[in-house]
Specification:
four-stranded antiparallel beta sheet; single chain; 1 helix; five-stranded antiparallel beta sheet; about 425 residues; Methylamine Dehydrogenase, Chain H; globular; mainly beta
Length: about 425
Protein backbone atom coordinates (compact mmCIF):
# COMPACT_ATOMS: atom_id res chain seq x y z
CA UNK A 1 0.00 0.00 0.00
CA UNK A 2 1.32 3.43 -0.93
CA UNK A 3 1.39 6.16 1.68
CA UNK A 4 -1.50 8.61 1.44
CA UNK A 5 0.76 11.63 1.62
CA UNK A 6 4.41 12.66 1.79
CA UNK A 7 4.38 13.12 5.54
CA UNK A 8 3.39 9.51 6.17
CA UNK A 9 6.10 8.40 3.73
CA UNK A 10 8.68 10.44 5.60
CA UNK A 11 7.60 8.86 8.88
CA UNK A 12 7.93 5.35 7.46
CA UNK A 13 11.31 6.20 5.99
CA UNK A 14 12.48 7.64 9.31
CA UNK A 15 11.29 4.53 11.14
CA UNK A 16 13.23 2.28 8.78
CA UNK A 17 16.34 4.42 9.24
CA UNK A 18 16.05 4.26 13.03
CA UNK A 19 15.59 0.48 12.93
CA UNK A 20 18.59 0.13 10.64
CA UNK A 21 20.72 2.32 12.89
CA UNK A 22 19.63 0.34 15.94
CA UNK A 23 20.75 -2.86 14.23
CA UNK A 24 24.11 -1.33 13.35
CA UNK A 25 24.61 -0.10 16.92
CA UNK A 26 23.71 -3.51 18.32
CA UNK A 27 26.25 -5.17 16.06
CA UNK A 28 28.97 -2.72 17.02
CA UNK A 29 28.38 -2.77 20.76
CA UNK A 30 28.40 -6.57 20.81
CA UNK A 31 32.12 -6.42 20.06
CA UNK A 32 34.91 -4.16 21.27
CA UNK A 33 33.79 -1.07 19.38
CA UNK A 34 31.44 1.13 21.38
CA UNK A 35 29.76 4.50 21.15
CA UNK A 36 27.54 4.50 18.10
CA UNK A 37 25.11 6.95 16.61
CA UNK A 38 24.67 10.66 17.25
CA UNK A 39 21.04 10.05 18.23
CA UNK A 40 21.80 7.60 21.03
CA UNK A 41 20.70 8.66 24.52
CA UNK A 42 23.30 9.85 26.99
CA UNK A 43 24.83 7.24 29.29
CA UNK A 44 26.23 8.26 32.66
CA UNK A 45 25.41 9.99 35.94
CA UNK A 46 24.14 13.47 36.60
CA UNK A 47 26.67 15.92 38.08
CA UNK A 48 27.26 15.97 41.82
CA UNK A 49 27.58 19.74 41.54
CA UNK A 50 27.78 22.50 38.96
CA UNK A 51 29.67 25.72 39.64
CA UNK A 52 29.08 28.74 37.43
CA UNK A 53 32.42 30.42 36.79
CA UNK A 54 31.08 33.74 35.54
CA UNK A 55 31.36 35.19 39.04
CA UNK A 56 34.94 33.88 39.15
CA UNK A 57 36.00 35.96 36.17
CA UNK A 58 35.20 33.68 33.23
CA UNK A 59 34.61 35.98 30.23
CA UNK A 60 31.01 36.01 28.99
CA UNK A 61 32.02 35.06 25.45
CA UNK A 62 34.48 32.32 26.45
CA UNK A 63 32.36 29.48 25.08
CA UNK A 64 30.99 31.22 22.03
CA UNK A 65 31.56 29.40 18.76
CA UNK A 66 34.06 31.96 17.43
CA UNK A 67 35.84 32.64 20.74
CA UNK A 68 39.10 31.07 19.54
CA UNK A 69 39.21 32.62 16.08
CA UNK A 70 42.53 34.31 16.95
CA UNK A 71 44.08 31.21 18.56
CA UNK A 72 46.89 31.13 16.02
CA UNK A 73 48.13 34.59 17.06
CA UNK A 74 46.92 34.93 20.67
CA UNK A 75 47.62 32.14 23.13
CA UNK A 76 44.87 31.19 25.57
CA UNK A 77 44.16 28.58 28.26
CA UNK A 78 41.19 26.24 28.65
CA UNK A 79 41.65 23.19 30.90
CA UNK A 80 40.39 20.98 33.71
CA UNK A 81 42.99 18.84 35.51
CA UNK A 82 42.88 16.55 38.56
CA UNK A 83 45.75 17.16 41.00
CA UNK A 84 44.73 14.12 43.08
CA UNK A 85 41.54 12.19 43.77
CA UNK A 86 40.06 15.04 45.86
CA UNK A 87 41.17 18.23 44.09
CA UNK A 88 40.43 19.41 40.58
CA UNK A 89 41.83 22.52 38.89
CA UNK A 90 40.07 24.51 36.20
CA UNK A 91 41.85 27.21 34.22
CA UNK A 92 41.06 29.85 31.61
CA UNK A 93 42.47 33.11 30.32
CA UNK A 94 40.73 36.22 31.56
CA UNK A 95 42.67 38.29 29.02
CA UNK A 96 41.19 38.89 25.54
CA UNK A 97 41.33 36.15 22.91
CA UNK A 98 41.98 38.72 20.15
CA UNK A 99 43.59 42.13 19.89
CA UNK A 100 41.12 44.93 20.54
CA UNK A 101 42.87 46.92 17.83
CA UNK A 102 45.62 46.09 15.35
CA UNK A 103 48.36 48.02 17.18
CA UNK A 104 47.38 47.03 20.73
CA UNK A 105 49.01 43.80 21.88
CA UNK A 106 47.36 41.42 24.35
CA UNK A 107 48.90 40.95 27.79
CA UNK A 108 47.97 37.43 28.85
CA UNK A 109 46.50 36.55 32.23
CA UNK A 110 45.43 33.01 33.16
CA UNK A 111 43.19 32.28 36.15
CA UNK A 112 43.41 28.92 37.94
CA UNK A 113 40.83 27.75 40.49
CA UNK A 114 41.01 24.58 42.60
CA UNK A 115 37.84 22.93 43.93
CA UNK A 116 37.21 20.05 46.30
CA UNK A 117 34.63 17.29 45.77
CA UNK A 118 31.92 19.36 47.45
CA UNK A 119 32.29 22.26 45.06
CA UNK A 120 34.15 24.48 47.52
CA UNK A 121 36.99 26.57 46.19
CA UNK A 122 40.30 25.60 47.81
CA UNK A 123 42.77 27.91 46.05
CA UNK A 124 42.97 30.47 43.27
CA UNK A 125 45.72 32.28 41.41
CA UNK A 126 46.28 34.52 38.41
CA UNK A 127 49.39 33.95 36.28
CA UNK A 128 50.61 36.54 33.74
CA UNK A 129 52.09 35.21 30.53
CA UNK A 130 53.12 36.41 27.09
CA UNK A 131 50.00 35.84 25.00
CA UNK A 132 50.60 37.89 21.86
CA UNK A 133 52.42 36.22 18.98
CA UNK A 134 53.14 39.50 17.16
CA UNK A 135 51.91 37.84 13.96
CA UNK A 136 53.87 34.62 14.62
CA UNK A 137 51.98 31.34 14.87
CA UNK A 138 51.39 30.28 18.49
CA UNK A 139 50.06 27.12 20.07
CA UNK A 140 47.44 27.24 22.81
CA UNK A 141 48.58 27.27 26.40
CA UNK A 142 48.51 23.86 28.06
CA UNK A 143 48.12 22.50 31.57
CA UNK A 144 48.13 18.91 32.77
CA UNK A 145 48.94 16.73 35.76
CA UNK A 146 52.58 17.00 36.81
CA UNK A 147 54.83 14.81 38.97
CA UNK A 148 54.16 14.47 42.69
CA UNK A 149 50.57 15.76 42.56
CA UNK A 150 51.53 19.07 40.97
CA UNK A 151 49.83 21.07 38.24
CA UNK A 152 52.00 21.45 35.16
CA UNK A 153 51.39 24.90 33.65
CA UNK A 154 53.11 25.06 30.28
CA UNK A 155 54.13 28.38 28.74
CA UNK A 156 55.04 28.80 25.09
CA UNK A 157 55.38 32.31 23.79
CA UNK A 158 57.12 34.65 21.37
CA UNK A 159 59.35 37.46 22.62
CA UNK A 160 60.47 40.47 20.61
CA UNK A 161 63.96 41.85 21.13
CA UNK A 162 64.60 45.64 20.83
CA UNK A 163 65.35 45.23 17.10
CA UNK A 164 61.96 43.58 16.53
CA UNK A 165 63.25 40.04 15.93
CA UNK A 166 61.15 37.24 17.40
CA UNK A 167 62.38 34.51 19.71
CA UNK A 168 60.34 31.51 20.80
CA UNK A 169 60.37 30.73 24.52
CA UNK A 170 59.22 27.63 26.36
CA UNK A 171 58.88 27.05 30.09
CA UNK A 172 57.29 24.64 32.55
CA UNK A 173 55.83 25.95 35.81
CA UNK A 174 54.92 23.37 38.48
CA UNK A 175 52.35 24.42 41.10
CA UNK A 176 51.39 22.57 44.29
CA UNK A 177 47.84 21.88 45.53
CA UNK A 178 47.68 25.43 46.92
CA UNK A 179 48.92 26.87 43.61
CA UNK A 180 52.26 27.87 45.09
CA UNK A 181 55.36 27.66 42.92
CA UNK A 182 57.27 24.39 43.15
CA UNK A 183 59.75 25.14 40.37
CA UNK A 184 59.98 26.86 37.01
CA UNK A 185 62.04 25.16 34.31
CA UNK A 186 62.89 27.23 31.24
CA UNK A 187 63.25 24.23 28.96
CA UNK A 188 61.24 22.64 26.18
CA UNK A 189 59.19 19.74 27.54
CA UNK A 190 59.47 16.69 25.29
CA UNK A 191 56.65 14.75 27.00
CA UNK A 192 55.40 13.50 30.37
CA UNK A 193 55.24 9.87 31.42
CA UNK A 194 51.89 8.11 31.57
CA UNK A 195 52.26 6.72 35.09
CA UNK A 196 53.74 9.44 37.33
CA UNK A 197 53.60 12.36 34.89
CA UNK A 198 57.36 12.69 35.19
CA UNK A 199 58.98 15.34 32.98
CA UNK A 200 61.06 14.28 29.97
CA UNK A 201 63.45 16.85 28.48
CA UNK A 202 65.78 16.47 25.54
CA UNK A 203 69.20 17.94 26.23
CA UNK A 204 69.88 20.39 23.42
CA UNK A 205 68.49 19.71 19.97
CA UNK A 206 69.76 17.51 17.19
CA UNK A 207 68.10 15.99 14.14
CA UNK A 208 70.61 13.21 13.54
CA UNK A 209 72.81 11.14 15.82
CA UNK A 210 72.50 10.33 19.54
CA UNK A 211 70.06 12.30 21.69
CA UNK A 212 70.21 12.66 25.45
CA UNK A 213 67.04 12.70 27.53
CA UNK A 214 66.56 13.56 31.20
CA UNK A 215 63.60 12.23 33.23
CA UNK A 216 62.57 14.27 36.30
CA UNK A 217 60.11 12.91 38.85
CA UNK A 218 58.71 13.97 42.24
CA UNK A 219 57.94 17.32 43.84
CA UNK A 220 60.26 19.12 43.64
CA UNK A 221 61.39 17.11 40.63
CA UNK A 222 64.76 15.37 40.60
CA UNK A 223 66.43 13.42 37.84
CA UNK A 224 65.59 9.72 38.09
CA UNK A 225 66.83 8.55 34.71
CA UNK A 226 69.11 9.72 31.93
CA UNK A 227 69.15 8.21 28.46
CA UNK A 228 71.43 8.62 25.47
CA UNK A 229 69.73 7.04 22.48
CA UNK A 230 70.55 6.88 18.79
CA UNK A 231 67.13 6.05 17.43
CA UNK A 232 67.15 3.34 14.72
CA UNK A 233 66.22 4.35 11.18
CA UNK A 234 62.48 3.86 10.82
CA UNK A 235 61.48 4.95 14.35
CA UNK A 236 57.91 6.27 14.10
CA UNK A 237 56.85 7.03 17.68
CA UNK A 238 58.43 6.94 21.12
CA UNK A 239 57.23 7.13 24.72
CA UNK A 240 59.22 7.29 27.94
CA UNK A 241 58.46 5.69 31.27
CA UNK A 242 60.17 6.62 34.51
CA UNK A 243 62.87 3.96 33.96
CA UNK A 244 62.31 2.57 30.46
CA UNK A 245 61.19 3.66 27.02
CA UNK A 246 59.22 2.24 24.09
CA UNK A 247 59.32 3.01 20.39
CA UNK A 248 57.65 1.95 17.16
CA UNK A 249 60.08 0.67 14.53
CA UNK A 250 58.83 0.23 10.97
CA UNK A 251 60.08 -0.84 7.57
CA UNK A 252 58.26 0.14 4.38
CA UNK A 253 57.64 -1.75 1.16
CA UNK A 254 59.28 0.55 -1.40
CA UNK A 255 59.55 -2.22 -4.00
CA UNK A 256 57.36 -5.32 -4.34
CA UNK A 257 58.17 -7.69 -1.43
CA UNK A 258 61.22 -5.61 -0.45
CA UNK A 259 60.98 -3.75 2.86
CA UNK A 260 63.44 -0.98 3.68
CA UNK A 261 64.22 1.12 6.76
CA UNK A 262 63.85 4.85 6.19
CA UNK A 263 62.87 7.94 8.18
CA UNK A 264 60.82 9.21 5.22
CA UNK A 265 57.16 8.18 5.37
CA UNK A 266 55.85 7.15 1.95
CA UNK A 267 52.11 7.49 1.43
CA UNK A 268 50.41 4.21 0.62
CA UNK A 269 53.45 2.06 1.35
CA UNK A 270 52.86 -1.15 3.29
CA UNK A 271 54.66 -1.35 6.64
CA UNK A 272 56.10 -4.01 8.86
CA UNK A 273 56.30 -2.61 12.39
CA UNK A 274 57.13 -3.70 15.90
CA UNK A 275 56.70 -2.17 19.35
CA UNK A 276 60.01 -2.27 21.22
CA UNK A 277 60.83 -1.71 24.90
CA UNK A 278 64.28 -1.01 26.34
CA UNK A 279 65.25 -0.84 30.02
CA UNK A 280 68.49 -0.12 31.93
CA UNK A 281 68.89 -3.79 32.93
CA UNK A 282 68.68 -4.79 29.25
CA UNK A 283 65.42 -6.65 29.90
CA UNK A 284 64.30 -5.63 26.43
CA UNK A 285 61.29 -7.07 24.64
CA UNK A 286 59.39 -6.56 21.40
CA UNK A 287 55.98 -7.32 19.88
CA UNK A 288 55.49 -7.43 16.07
CA UNK A 289 52.39 -5.73 14.64
CA UNK A 290 52.20 -8.15 11.71
CA UNK A 291 50.48 -6.44 8.77
CA UNK A 292 48.47 -3.96 10.82
CA UNK A 293 50.68 -0.97 10.02
CA UNK A 294 51.95 1.37 12.71
CA UNK A 295 50.59 2.55 16.06
CA UNK A 296 50.57 5.53 18.42
CA UNK A 297 51.97 4.75 21.86
CA UNK A 298 49.95 5.79 24.92
CA UNK A 299 52.51 4.90 27.59
CA UNK A 300 53.71 2.45 30.22
CA UNK A 301 51.27 1.01 32.75
CA UNK A 302 52.07 0.19 36.36
CA UNK A 303 52.92 -3.45 35.54
CA UNK A 304 55.42 -2.49 32.83
CA UNK A 305 53.12 -3.28 29.92
CA UNK A 306 52.50 -0.69 27.18
CA UNK A 307 49.21 0.74 25.93
CA UNK A 308 48.89 1.79 22.32
CA UNK A 309 46.45 2.63 19.56
CA UNK A 310 46.97 0.58 16.41
CA UNK A 311 46.09 2.24 13.12
CA UNK A 312 43.60 0.26 11.06
CA UNK A 313 43.04 0.92 7.37
CA UNK A 314 39.59 2.32 6.75
CA UNK A 315 38.92 2.99 10.45
CA UNK A 316 39.71 6.39 11.99
CA UNK A 317 39.29 4.83 15.44
CA UNK A 318 41.90 2.11 15.07
CA UNK A 319 42.26 -0.47 17.85
CA UNK A 320 43.21 0.13 21.48
CA UNK A 321 45.46 -2.58 22.95
CA UNK A 322 47.88 -3.43 25.74
CA UNK A 323 51.16 -5.14 24.86
CA UNK A 324 52.36 -7.46 27.63
CA UNK A 325 55.92 -8.42 28.53
CA UNK A 326 55.13 -12.01 27.54
CA UNK A 327 54.59 -10.60 24.01
CA UNK A 328 50.84 -11.08 24.04
CA UNK A 329 48.43 -8.37 22.84
CA UNK A 330 45.27 -7.66 24.84
CA UNK A 331 42.45 -5.76 23.05
CA UNK A 332 40.51 -3.13 24.98
CA UNK A 333 36.97 -1.81 24.49
CA UNK A 334 37.10 1.20 22.20
CA UNK A 335 35.05 3.63 20.12
CA UNK A 336 33.23 2.52 16.96
CA UNK A 337 35.27 2.30 13.78
CA UNK A 338 33.85 5.46 12.17
CA UNK A 339 34.84 7.72 15.07
CA UNK A 340 38.18 9.40 15.59
CA UNK A 341 39.75 9.87 19.02
CA UNK A 342 42.60 9.07 21.37
CA UNK A 343 43.13 8.63 25.12
CA UNK A 344 42.51 11.87 27.03
CA UNK A 345 42.98 10.56 30.57
CA UNK A 346 43.15 7.19 32.32
CA UNK A 347 43.93 5.37 35.55
CA UNK A 348 47.46 4.04 35.99
CA UNK A 349 46.43 0.47 35.15
CA UNK A 350 44.04 1.44 32.33
CA UNK A 351 41.16 -0.09 34.28
CA UNK A 352 39.26 3.04 33.28
CA UNK A 353 40.06 5.47 30.51
CA UNK A 354 38.37 8.29 28.64
CA UNK A 355 38.34 9.76 25.15
CA UNK A 356 36.74 12.59 23.24
CA UNK A 357 35.48 11.08 19.98
CA UNK A 358 34.31 12.90 16.87
CA UNK A 359 33.43 12.24 13.26
CA UNK A 360 35.81 15.01 12.28
CA UNK A 361 39.41 14.85 11.09
CA UNK A 362 42.42 14.74 13.39
CA UNK A 363 42.63 18.54 13.73
CA UNK A 364 39.36 18.48 15.69
CA UNK A 365 40.25 15.58 18.00
CA UNK A 366 40.90 15.93 21.71
CA UNK A 367 38.96 19.18 22.00
CA UNK A 368 41.03 20.75 19.21
CA UNK A 369 40.91 24.49 18.66
CA UNK A 370 38.88 26.19 15.92
CA UNK A 371 36.31 23.37 16.04
CA UNK A 372 32.59 23.93 16.46
CA UNK A 373 29.76 21.55 17.21
CA UNK A 374 29.86 18.55 19.52
CA UNK A 375 31.58 15.23 19.98
CA UNK A 376 31.19 12.32 22.39
CA UNK A 377 32.81 12.16 25.83
CA UNK A 378 33.19 8.44 26.59
CA UNK A 379 34.54 6.77 29.74
CA UNK A 380 35.28 3.05 29.49
CA UNK A 381 35.53 0.40 32.18
CA UNK A 382 38.01 -2.20 30.97
CA UNK A 383 36.48 -5.16 32.83
CA UNK A 384 32.83 -4.58 32.00
CA UNK A 385 33.46 -3.80 28.35
CA UNK A 386 30.74 -1.15 28.53
CA UNK A 387 31.06 2.62 28.66
CA UNK A 388 30.28 4.18 32.01
CA UNK A 389 29.74 7.49 30.25
CA UNK A 390 28.82 8.20 26.64
CA UNK A 391 27.37 11.64 26.11
CA UNK A 392 27.47 14.64 23.87
CA UNK A 393 29.99 17.35 24.70
CA UNK A 394 30.84 20.62 22.93
CA UNK A 395 34.22 20.63 21.22
CA UNK A 396 35.20 23.80 23.03
CA UNK A 397 34.67 22.05 26.38
CA UNK A 398 37.21 20.02 28.35
CA UNK A 399 36.89 16.93 30.55
CA UNK A 400 39.17 14.72 32.62
CA UNK A 401 38.99 11.44 34.55
CA UNK A 402 40.22 11.38 38.16
CA UNK A 403 43.36 9.30 38.94
CA UNK A 404 41.33 6.57 40.70
CA UNK A 405 38.62 6.56 38.03
CA UNK A 406 35.82 7.31 40.51
CA UNK A 407 35.02 10.80 39.23
CA UNK A 408 35.26 12.89 36.14
CA UNK A 409 35.11 16.64 35.76
CA UNK A 410 34.05 18.78 32.83
CA UNK A 411 34.56 22.43 31.96
CA UNK A 412 31.80 23.42 29.56
CA UNK A 413 29.11 26.04 28.97
CA UNK A 414 30.61 28.34 31.58
CA UNK A 415 30.57 25.76 34.37
CA UNK A 416 32.77 23.31 36.24
CA UNK A 417 30.87 20.05 36.73
CA UNK A 418 31.99 17.04 38.78
CA UNK A 419 30.43 13.57 38.41
CA UNK A 420 30.72 10.42 40.53
CA UNK A 421 31.28 7.07 38.83
CA UNK A 422 30.37 3.67 40.32
CA UNK A 423 33.11 1.80 42.20
CA UNK A 424 34.92 -0.96 40.39
Amino acid sequence: MRPRNGTQGDELSGTRKRLAMTAVCAALTSGLFLGCSKAQPAIGPKPDFRVSLSSRGLPDDFFQADADKCAGQISGYRFVVWLNNDRVAVGFNISPNCRQSRDRKVDGMARILIFDLRGNIAASRDIPYLADGYGEVLSDGEAEAGPGGTLLFRIQSVNLDPQGASESKSAVLLLDANLKDVVRLDRFLEQTTFLNHALVFQEGFTINGPRTYSVLDGSPPVEVQRWTQDWPVGTMDRKFGEHQFAYMLCRQELRPNVYSSTNIIYAGAKRQCSMNVEAPDHANWSVPLRDEGTAALVGFLNDGSVAGQINVKGSPAGRLVIWKKDQTTVPLPWISHDYSGSIVSATADMSRYATFATHENASCENFGKSCTGTGRWIVFDRDSGKPLVDRSMPKNGRASLSPNGLHYASFESGELRVYSLPPR
